[in-house]
């Protein structure tokens, strides 16, 4: 579809938002309303989470460096880091190798068996784009998923949990069959792996309660709040009920603001990332994001570094997402 056509259709769909049209938007609660997931949680737990997230993003950007499909010198070190984090929380890990063009890549997959039926996948991609360190574009998503993994260390879950740390999620593979998430899903389907729900994390580091901090492009600035303190919860075009359910869970465990959207993934301004192959396969899929480029003008540029992220604000949202995941996982 030509960019001009996408823009025209996107504008028409956004214009219908909130009026019973095809863009379904729900919110909980008002922008600017802040709080913490568990009021009884000791304050030091929040500080520890903040520091873990900071260290994770800095490790990926400074110690590992560029993680693009064309320049990934420290790739083995990062994959081993993932395996160690999974093992420390009781997950059995394996690598899934695949070809993209004339190169070989690997996904790292972790599995922790549940006591009941059903399978929940939690995933993100770890690679970066071009010469950018992609601190927000991908490193915050990885840090968030690893924090979720850590939170499940001592938890018994009803559902079996699959963690997907996927390669080739950025250009030139983004949106193509060569995406790591798509390659793993194809193999999983051949192996008969049943996935009942997928939760995907995209960029998750840009949060600020100041008015005017949400720098949305046309036409999304017509409907997006002007504050940048809310989490975007995205489902597919026919997933209005799934998005409402996700927002309902979010609202039960946190006072952090969120906005929900059920839209086609090809719409301009939608963070179309690792969720696409799962949605295309008919798997109920929800994406959690800080809205990506609709908020962060530096995303995927050389300015997308680890020292411009407010880790205190990020930690509060990650804490909320951890509690959401526990509900989906059926933590006993």
Describe the structure.
With 332 residues, this protein is an alpha/beta fold. It has a single domain, classed as 3-Layer(aba) Sandwich (Aminopeptidase), CATH 3.40.630.10. Helices cover 35% and strands 17% of the residues. The chain has eight helices and nine strands. A nine-stranded mixed sheet has the order 1-8-7-9-6-4-5-3-2, with helices on both faces. β2 and β3 (103-112) form a beta hairpin. α2 (43-64) packs across α4. Mean pLDDT is 89; it is low at 17-25 and 29-39.
Name its key features.
8 helices, globular, alpha/beta, Aminopeptidase, 332 residues, nine-stranded mixed sheet
CATH topology descriptor: Aminopeptidase
Portion of residues in helices? 25-40%
**Uncertain stretches:** 17-25, 29-39
Structural class: alpha/beta
Strand content: 15-25%
Largest sheet, order of strands side by side?
Answer: 1-8-7-9-6-4-5-3-2
**H-E string:** HEHHEEEHEHEEHEHEH
Count of discrete structural domains? 1
Mean of all residue-level pLDDT scores: 89
Main sheet, how many strands, which sense, barrel?
9 strands, mixed
Shape: globular
C-alpha termini separation = 46 Å
